[in-house]
Amino acid sequence: MDVKRDILWRVYLSYILVVIVCVAIFGKAIYIQQVQGPHWRSMSDSLHQKLAEIDAERGTIYSEDGQMLSTSIPQFDIYIDFRVASLREKNGILFRSNIDSLSECLSNLFKDQSADEYKMLLQQGYKDEDGYFLLRKKISFREYDQLRKFPLFKLGRYKSGMIANEKTIRLNPYQMLAFRTIGLARDSNKVGLEMTYDSLLKGRNGKQTVRTIAGGVSVPVDDTYEIEPETGKDIVSTIDVFIQDVAENALMKMMLKNEAEHGCAIVMEVKTGKIKAIANLGKRKDGSYWEDFNYAINPSEPGSTFKLATLMALLEDKKVKLTDVVNLEGGTWHINGQTVYDAEQHGLYNATIKQAFEHSSNVGMAKLVWNNYGNNPNQFLRHLKKMRMDTLTGIDLTGERNAIIFRPGSKLWGPTTLPWMAFGYNLAVTPLQTITLYNAVANNGRMMRPYLVSSVKEEGVLLRDFQPKAVDEKICSDQTLQQLRECLEGVCIEGTAVKLFKNTPYHVAGKTGTALVANGRLGYADKIYQSSFAGYFPAENPQYTCIVVIKNKPHALIHFGADVAGPVFKEISDRLYSTYIRQTNTAGAQRKKTDSSLFSYAGSKEDMAYISAKLKLKYADSTARVDNWSNMNGKDASVVLSGKSFDASTMPQLKGMGLKDVVYLCENIGLKVNIKGKGKVAAQSITAGQAVARGQLVSIELN
Question: Using an 8 Å Cβ cutoff, are 497 and 491 in contact?
């Protein structure tokens, strides 16, 4: 029994020892994981280095007049590594001697906490020996530039422990202005020009050695790159900010007034095909409007604006003359078991073809097409092909959708397809296709390819220039063209748009359109009308072509093209005529006399003195001996030369300086210069006195 008891005692003792060891191991594991975990994970992360890809700075999208439409700006997340040796040595004397002034500066800059609260926050991070202490996220370059001048931080990264994690965000300075056309630059959701020209804008990524600190955030080991990132190219669009703003505001007014579903407005330069403005507004759930979809390149039933194509086919085939008479039957016509109705009640019966077009008679157009092409619809369709109504316009914008035009033999071709096509139903084309056709008529039959980008640049140097391109030198004969222009002008003088353009100081050629459109599975019961107006101005010497298309709410009381889309067109044409066209026409006769007694120049002091000597210009010199730059101001025969000084850390005032001096001065302080125009500096993208950094881009506009 003693032997047995002795054996059992030893077994129990061994078991207890094993249990104690297991509990100790388990306890130590919990202690390491829960208590020491952050410390060891931080140590592990800090030892982990890798070669990371660094995103290149994306190129800027400019308007044709030099305004930034989409650009990249830096944003910084600020962390502090409280483990750096300089902060821990000598019982933290460096940290303790700077914490009060640093806290005060942080409070004054961010204004979100008091100086005492910032002090407590920093002290806690220091006490915890936090290697990844988050101070502030998403601060601007201006704030970052001030931050690195603060007490402690001004000692540099390796002494202060301050880590700036830089990232680039995409900014649209004009926000909604042409937002859908310019596009977004998100990785998985690029649209518009950002998507079409992505390969040029994105540049080439670089590579840099980084170490991972606690939280999985990577910070550079040093400021050098294994492979230097290459900044993306800049693109200059054809968009004119003023015209875009006019078009968008005019469209917005009508959208709000009529509570419309969505709408678009396009302005095209007649001779070139440049898109000067393209506004797209859609209604959101809260009732507000935003550039949510590019309706300009999305097909829909055009309605009566398509009658221009119908009349062109009839005239080109010499099937009719404008003086021929057609019976409009009061606005109602029965064919193949269906009824054609005129949208507006005009009460006309026997009318000339010109009158039928001017009064937008569906009956007249349907009868003419049925009587002349009923036995050979392909002849009519060949004209649509010639007008490129069944073809993408080729605009440099990803996402343009194909038109829908049915053909004999297809499942959807029926006995009423052809006559309905005559007045813009039973087919779907985009507003961009329609404006391209109208622009060809305005441009003496020469059809231009619409385009949105005029050039590609790199740091202000032109790399590629996109020239206007004709896709068809003559879409119809001159005789047909003359008759079409006569009819389009007639619409605005005697037809459906007569009230709209009454007493207008310039002539407009255009066409109204009112189409009843289907509401999905509900069909046409909701009475949703699409209002449109397409035309060009001034009619005698066309400069701009414009189209406005608006889809109204169900059962809208005001829905005719002349009442909804027409006023938008007129507001755009009025503003452009008064701003651009009238001034151009009267520039030769009414040039302003320059005042030679009042002037201001800026530049090199030495150059100013040399030029003044050559011109024998007497001036009073108030500059100091150390001044290298000067201003020269003249008024009432009194000329004064005054000193001009610059600080290398801030943006200088460049207004009045010449190109040579601007380039010399800016490049000396490390700025990249983008130049537009000739002459003296009229505007600069970075405000004078604003802090600047080496490598920053400044755009200079010369007058």
Answer: yes
Residue pLDDT, tens place only, 184-225: 755 556 788 888 888 888 877 766 666 665 555 566 656 555
Amino acid at the residue 265: A
- Low-confidence residues of the chain: pLDDT under 50: 587-598, 626, 635-636
- Contact (CB, 8 A) for 200 and 110: no
* 183: number of Cβ within 10 Å: 28
CA distance 238 to 65: 9
CATH of 50-233, one of 3.40.50.150, 2.30.180.10, 3.90.1310.10, 3.30.450.40: 3.90.1310.10
Spatial separation of the C-alpha atoms in residues 238 and 229, rounded to whole Å: 29
The residue assigned the tokens 């502090």 is: 80
pLDDT of residue 133: 87
Q: Identify the three-state secondary structure at position 107.
A: helix
Q: Tell me the C-alpha distance between 419 and 703, whole Å.
A: 56
pLDDT at 531: 95
The SS3 assignment for 123 reads helix
Distances (CA, A) of 289 to 197, 251, 258, 531: 27, 11, 12, 18
289 and 279 Cβ atoms separated by less than 8 Å: no
Contact criterion met (CB below 8 Å) for 82 and 147: no
pTM equals 0.73
DSSP E strands: which ranges in 261-398?
Answer: 262-269, 275-283, 289-290, 325-327, 332-335, 338-341, 350-352
Nearest to 641 by CA among 596, 679, 610, 601: 601
Extended beta strands in 5-124, E state: 49-54, 61-62, 68-80
Secondary structure string (H, E, C) spanning 52-77: EEECCCCCCEECCCCCEEEEEEEEEE
Pairing of strands 461-465, 453-458: antiparallel
Per-residue 3-state assignment (H helix, E strand, C coil) for 507-526: CCEEEEEEEEECCHHHCCCC
Cα 433 to Cα 297: distance, rounded to the nearest angstrom: 8
Q: Report how far residue 71's alpha carbon sits from residue 67's, in angstroms, rounded to the nearest whole number.
A: 10
Angle at 185 between CA 217 and CA 237, to 5 degrees: 145
Contact in structure between 297 and 399 (CB atoms under 8 Å): yes
Question: CB-based contacts of 401: which residues, under 8 Å, 6+ apart?
Answer: 297, 298, 299, 430
- Report the SS3 class of residue 340: strand
Say if residues 420 and 296 touch (Cβ distance below 8 Å): no
Q: Which CATH number fits domain 241-586: 3.40.710.10, 3.40.50.10800, 3.40.1010.20, 1.20.1250.20?
A: 3.40.710.10
d(CA 256, CA 474) in angstroms, rounded, equals: 40
Q: Phi and psi of 85, rounded to 5°?
A: -60, -40
Answer yes or no: are the C-beta atoms of 565 and 548 closer than 8 Å.
Answer: yes
Q: How far apart are CA 388 and CA 434, in angstroms?
A: 10
Phi/psi of residue 55, nearest 5 degrees: -65, 135
**Over the stretch 356-381, which tens digit does the pLDDT of each residue have?**
999 999 999 999 999 999 999 999 99
Which tokens sit at 66? 């030099």
